[in-house]
Write a structure and sequence with these properties.
mainly alpha; zinc; transmembrane helix; Znf_RING; 2 domains
């Protein structure tokens, strides 16, 4: 019996795993989860959830600081875009991002949280009717999706040591090419640097400070 199960397992791996990786995230992870459940059921064991990398674990947060900062920055930019939207568009946006934000804010496995955000971004970007964000915000969401996709491969996806990124993304203290609020290029004469090292257009961060008390990139307290 065990030999038959092993043969089925091997067949599933051969048939699906290579193709599974090519599926968009909104299909890939649900199918992968169901496949894992099926294999575990055939083998008579509980599903393998793997090692837990909790957000409450400082060591795990240190290893995944870049992806954590990237997604936190995305949510901060979305918050910054809300005031310029109509009430109806704000309602639609809040509905679309409620599940994503709730999963991201949960004290759960970092990889699962990143996958959840990636899945929701995939769904959002593939529904053209959702056009309530301006072009710069939509481009930011698409850039975040592509960044997650680019760094999802390898043995340690999204871990700092495996991140493939632009040179300016290596440190908060290096000058970014864009203001993280408006996504326009920074000009030295009009930029403002916070105590945490992140830089923005002066008028963008001044307006941000009217609604928030933390840096839109790293959530450090504004001083």
């Amino acid at each position: 019996m065990q030999n038959h199960i092993a043969a089925i397992h091997g067949g599933l791996d051969l048939l699906f795993m290579e193709r599974l990786h090519k599926l968009p995230p909104r299909w890939r992870f649900p199918v992968k989860s169901e496949l894992n459940k099926l294999v575990c059921e055939l083998e008579g064991r509980e599903p393998d959830i793997g090692p837990q990398l909790l957000k409450s674990d400082p060591e795990a947060v240190r290893k995944y600081s870049i992806v954590l900062e990237r997604i936190n920055r995305m949510f901060a930019q979305l918050d910054g875009a809300m005031p310029s939207m109509s009430s109806f568009d704000q309602f639609c946006a809040n509905n679309d991002f409620r599940i994503m934000r709730r999963k991201w804010d949960a004290d759960s496995d970092i990889i699962q949280c990143v996958e959840s955000v990636w899945v929701e971004l995939d769904r959002l970007l593939n529904f053209p009717r959702r056009h309530y964000f301006d072009d710069s915000t939509f481009d930011m969401l698409r850039a975040t999706y592509r960044w997650l996709e680019r760094n999802s491969v390898g043995e340690n996806p999204w871990q700092d040591t495996a991140i493939r990124q632009e040179s300016w993304e290596n440190s908060a203290y290096q000058e970014p090419v864009e203001c993280s609020i408006c996504r326009e290029y920074l000009e030295a004469v009009h930029q403002k640097t916070l105590y945490c090292g992140h830089q923005f257009h002066e008028h963008c961060i001044d307006q941000w400070e009217m609604y928030a008390e933390s840096c839109p990139c790293c959530r450090s307290e504004l001083q």
